[in-house]
């Protein structure tokens, strides 16, 4: 498309602000004054990208207003399902308007209409005046406005490029024959985002087919007698609703607002005003970039060294080719491989490898990265190794597909990896350590894992390299999808990618990780988490690598028998449900289930409904009904059987590695903000324990051979013991020190009865109180959990704090500390940042206050078991035991014990766990032994 003389860009402000807000939600930009500027920053980047790259002759930005629109008048439920506007967005809107005005760009808004109505009106009028119009928004509904000279401009987002949609693209996207049918599509299928109902049961495919046959919603309704079955019934019953939905979705193009194209002509920003705003928001780099470029005249880009990896000699002994780069100056704030100087080398001969190893051996620190053909370490083959020890410089060593040849090359680098004087830097070092372990190479000496470093610096955000590079280095790395495509059956394999592309990709990974280390080392010092990093998290990397490598044996015969039993139980439950309901239906369909329980059987008079208008049939609803209605109880049992069968019993055998016949989970060290470990494939933390059927699954976890047996060691009430120590509550500490049952003790004090008179129900309620309060449970929540009135629940909470005043004092102190510092800490200094602690949003603030109380407790429990794991791992290694640590689940460690070592393991494991971190309250560890996990637990 040649550049027209008159181009008008119309920006949908709210859509772009929301998009920017959520893009930065995991890594918020907080100014020194505590203001979240992410939405304003993201919007500014999008705006300047258009001004700088597209150079429109005219531009305007449209906003929604808080006033109700004509759609709300016609349909009061319009957008009623939406959550309240986030406070950070509410604050961002006036900032964005100020920024827009400082760019000398008009702000368009009118009460009673939405931004898309204003944009639709201006697009029509501008097109009639000879403009090429681009409506910039991620909202696909704008497709109904596209016509000749009017385009939908969807901005780049999350790795996807800009998408400019004209008439052909919109027709293909919506699978319709005419543009005016887009609004018919919306009328038929509805729009859940805006709470537009449409015709129930009509999805995109059905809607497209109907429109191809009958043209419009009106045409479909007129010919409803030609339809069949459920579709006929739905169209006849909900036809009027479909017509109303069509009108709600239709963008108004006749908004009564003056159109004067001269006011939208772009002549540059008000530098003084923009400087003032950006200084206030601390957009200093952006200010320099925008005003610098605005004042500059286009000049040739500075030549950049672009490495020809096929010809480059080692350490700069060949001349890099020069490229003048793009025709226009590069103005994007973020660097890329294409616009950043780099010196990446392909090390593909024995001579080059020898020379590289010589240089690596004299480095104090270096970054390494493995490229493989599989994400499962136990099954992965090495494709190559990348190294970096200097910013902008990296080296890639490809390895052959032949295992023996690859082993020979990796052996050459053994002295580098086993040199304990060199600090090895990696991103997700555990994976790389396991890959090298497959080839018999051990990574020795100190390690710096950038993923874990950032996890300690900012635990609530994302820690993958691409995000870290963008946020801390202003750099966008090459995406893996550019090399092998997106995840799925059609995804390629790294071993099949051109070696020179892999060399650049891998070299960049090592280079970027090396640079991130320099940033994060200083930040950890500033945040006082370096000791936690060096003494706990990094040593744990090797522990987890070994646990995963050890694997767990699964009894497939036991699971097959269990699967058959669950199938039979499911069929039996299904038959009972159909008999009680009086008809057959799809039990897995919430809609059908709701109709049976509440329309047909009328189990309750006013059943609760979801936001989509369906009856709520969740576990909480059915659990209450199960007290009086057998059908609800059996449905819950049916769901349990189905979930156990599909999620665990049938899934676990598929996770057995063909390499060694064991299951190797993936422990994730940088996921839970509390510091606790999580696991994946399988998720061992979720193996059921509360129900008898669920517990049976643990029977399938067995020792690896007849001369082994399983040992499970579990901290007893670790979190409550930590509460007692932190709160220094005499009553609670005394109970633990004297070995009394803490829940019975609590019941005795709260209910005012002697300890020996505490019954099972009292103890159950006290247990809910003990654990509930440290998780911030309210009187309402406690009442729900133990089946009492809210008044009685509040009386119990009050009595609890009267009897354990130290706990209340601790809880208040933690909230106050969070308000003062915006973070809380564990016993080892692990921080949990609570950005919403001062929020005006009561829900967000309440969540932060609960975390202020609970995070130090959960986090300290995590600290304790991690220290114990390291101590046990080191002891077992030192003693050269054949027994293996194979699982960590919550507060429990599981070992596959060589039987001759059982007695020493039973003695030392609990001792090491108890002494992991000394507290004023003694830790207790329960140990069990058995020929499967259930018996050992």
TrEMBL record:
Swiss-Prot/TrEMBL catalytic activity: DNA(n) + a 2'-deoxyribonucleoside 5'-triphosphate = DNA(n+1) + diphosphate
Question: Which residues belong to any copy of the 5'-3' exonuclease domain?
Answer: 3-267
Q: What is this protein called?
A: DNA polymerase I
Instruction: List each copy of the DNA-directed DNA polymerase family A palm domain by range.
Output: 694-901
Membrane-spanning ranges: none
Its GO biological process terms?
Answer: DNA-templated DNA replication; double-strand break repair
Instruction: Cite the entry's keywords alphabetically.
Output: DNA damage, DNA repair, DNA replication, DNA-binding, DNA-directed DNA polymerase, Exonuclease, Hydrolase, Nuclease, Nucleotidyltransferase, Transferase
Family, per the entry? Belongs to the DNA polymerase type-A family.
- Species: Roseivirga seohaensis subsp. aquiponti
What CDD domains does the annotation carry? DNA_pol_A_pol_I_C, DNA_polA_I_Ecoli_like_exo, H3TH_53EXO, PIN_53EXO
**Lineage start:** Bacteria, Pseudomonadati, Bacteroidota, Cytophagia, Cytophagales
Q: Which SUPFAM superfamilies match?
A: 5' to 3' exonuclease, C-terminal subdomain, DNA/RNA polymerases, PIN domain-like, Ribonuclease H-like
**Which positions fall inside the 3'-5' exonuclease domain?**
344-525
The UniProt function text for this chain reads:
In addition to polymerase activity, this DNA polymerase exhibits 3'-5' and 5'-3' exonuclease activity.
């Amino acid at each position: 498309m040649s550049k027209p003389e008159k181009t008008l860009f119309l920006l949908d402000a709210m859509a772009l602000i929301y998009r920017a807000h959520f893009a930065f939600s995991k890594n918020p930009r907080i100014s020194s004054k505590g203001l979240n500027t992410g939405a304003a920053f993201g919007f500014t980047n999008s705006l300047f990208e258009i001004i700088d790259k597209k150079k429109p002759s005219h531009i305007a930005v449209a906003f929604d207003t808080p006033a109700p629109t004509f759609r709300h008048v016609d349909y009061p439920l319009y957008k009623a399902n939406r959550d309240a506007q986030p406070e950070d967005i509410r604050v961002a809107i006036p900032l964005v308007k100020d920024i827009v005005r400082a760019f000398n760009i008009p702000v368009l808004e009118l009460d009673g209409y939405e931004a898309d109505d204003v944009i639709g009106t201006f697009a029509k009028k501008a097109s009639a005046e000879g403009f090429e119009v681009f409506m910039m928004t991620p909202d696909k509904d704008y497709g109904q406005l596209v016509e000749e000279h009017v385009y939908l401009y969807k901005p780049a987002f999350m790795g996807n490029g800009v998408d400019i949609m004209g008439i052909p693209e919109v027709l293909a996207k919506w699978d319709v024959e005419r543009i005016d049918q887009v609004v018919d599509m919306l009328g038929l299928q509805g729009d859940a985002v805006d709470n537009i109902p449409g015709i129930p049961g009509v999805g995109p495919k059905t809607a497209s087919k109907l429109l191809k046959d009958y043209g419009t919603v009106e045409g479909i309704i007129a010919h409803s007698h030609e339809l069949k079955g459920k579709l006929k019934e739905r169209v006849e019953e909900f036809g009027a609703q479909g017509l109303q939905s069509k009108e709600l979705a239709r963008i108004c193009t006749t908004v009564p607002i003056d159109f004067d194209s001269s006011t939208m002509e772009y002549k540059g920003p008000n530098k003084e005003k923009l400087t003032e705003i950006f200084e206030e928001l601390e957009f200093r780099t952006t200010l320099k970039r925008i005003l610098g470029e605005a004042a500059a005249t286009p000049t040739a880009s500075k030549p950049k060294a672009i490495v020809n990896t096929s010809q480059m000699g080692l350490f700069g002994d060949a001349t890099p080719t020069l490229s003048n780069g793009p025709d226009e100056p590069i103005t994007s704030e973020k660097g890329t491989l294409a616009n950043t100087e780099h010196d990446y080398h392909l090390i593909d001969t024995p001579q080059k490898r020898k020379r590289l190893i010589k240089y690596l051996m004299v480095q104090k620190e270096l970054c390494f990265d493995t490229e493989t053909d599989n994400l499962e370490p136990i099954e992965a083959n090495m494709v190559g190794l990348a190294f970096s020890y200097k910013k902008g410089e990296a080296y890639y060593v490809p390895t052959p597909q032949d295992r023996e040849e690859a082993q020979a090359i990796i052996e050459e680098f053994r002295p580098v990896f086993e040199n304990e004087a060199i600090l090895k830097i990696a991103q997700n070092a555990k994976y790389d350590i396991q890959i090298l372990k497959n080839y018999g190479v051990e990574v020795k000496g100190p390690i710096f894992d950038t993923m874990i470093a950032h996890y300690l610096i900012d635990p609530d955000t994302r820690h993958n390299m691409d995000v870290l590079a963008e946020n801390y280095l202003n750099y966008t790395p090459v995406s893996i999808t550019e090399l092998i495509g997106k995840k799925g059956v059609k995804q390629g394999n790294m071993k099949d990618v051109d070696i020179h592309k892999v060399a650049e990709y891998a070299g960049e990974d090592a280079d970027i990780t090396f640079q991130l280390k320099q940033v994060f080392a200083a930040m950890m010092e500033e945040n006082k988490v370096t000791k936690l990093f060096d003494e706990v998290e990094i040593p744990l990397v090797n522990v987890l690598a070994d646990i995963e490598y050890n694997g767990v044996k699964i009894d497939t015969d036991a699971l097959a028998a269990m699967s058959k039993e669950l199938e039979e139980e499911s069929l039996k439950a299904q038959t009972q449900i159909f008999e009680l309901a009086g008809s057959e239906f799809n039990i897995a369909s919430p809609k059908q289930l709701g109709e049976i329980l509440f329309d047909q059987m009328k189990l309750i008079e006013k059943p609760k409904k979801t936001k989509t208008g369906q009856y709520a049939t969740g576990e909480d609803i059915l659990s209450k009904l199960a007290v009086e209605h057998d059908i609800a109880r059996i449905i819950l049992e049916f769901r349990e059987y189905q979930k156990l069968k599909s999620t665990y019993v049938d899934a676990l055998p598929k996770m057995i590695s063909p390499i060694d016949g064991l299951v190797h989970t993936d422990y994730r060290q940088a996921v839970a903000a509390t510091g606790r470990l999580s696991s994946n494939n399988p998720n061992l933390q979720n193996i059921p324990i509360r129900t008898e059927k669920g517990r049976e699954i643990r029977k399938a976890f067995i020792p690896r051979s007849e001369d082994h047996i399983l040992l499970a060691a579990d901290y007893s009430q670790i979190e409550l013991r930590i509460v007692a120590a932190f709160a220094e509550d005499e009553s609670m500490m005394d109970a633990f020190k004297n070995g009394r049952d803490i829940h019975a003790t609590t019941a005795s004090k709260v209910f005012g009865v002697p300890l020996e008179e505490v019954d099972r129900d009292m103890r159950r309620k006290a247990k809910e109180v003990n654990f509930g309060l440290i998780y911030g449970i309210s009187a309402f929540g406690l009442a729900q959990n133990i089946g009492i009135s809210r008044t009685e629940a509040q009386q119990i909470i009050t009595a609890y704090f009267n009897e354990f005043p130290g706990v209340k004092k601790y809880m208040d102190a933690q909230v106050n500390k969070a308000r003062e510092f915006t973070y809380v800490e564990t016993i080892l200094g692990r921080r949990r940042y609570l950005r919403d602690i001062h929020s005006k949003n009561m829900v967000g603030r309440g969540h932060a206050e609960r975390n202020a109380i609970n995070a130090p407790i959960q986090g300290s429990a995590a600290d304790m078991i991690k220290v114990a794991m390291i101590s046990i791992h080191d002891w077992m290694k030192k003693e050269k035991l054949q027994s293996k640590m194979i699982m960590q689940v919550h507060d429990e460690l599981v070992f596959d014990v060589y039987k001759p070592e059982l007695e020493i393991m039973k003695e030392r494991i609990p001792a090491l766990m108890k002494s992991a971190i000394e507290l004023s309250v003694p830790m207790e560890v329960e140990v069990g032994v058995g020929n499967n996990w259930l018996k050992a637990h």
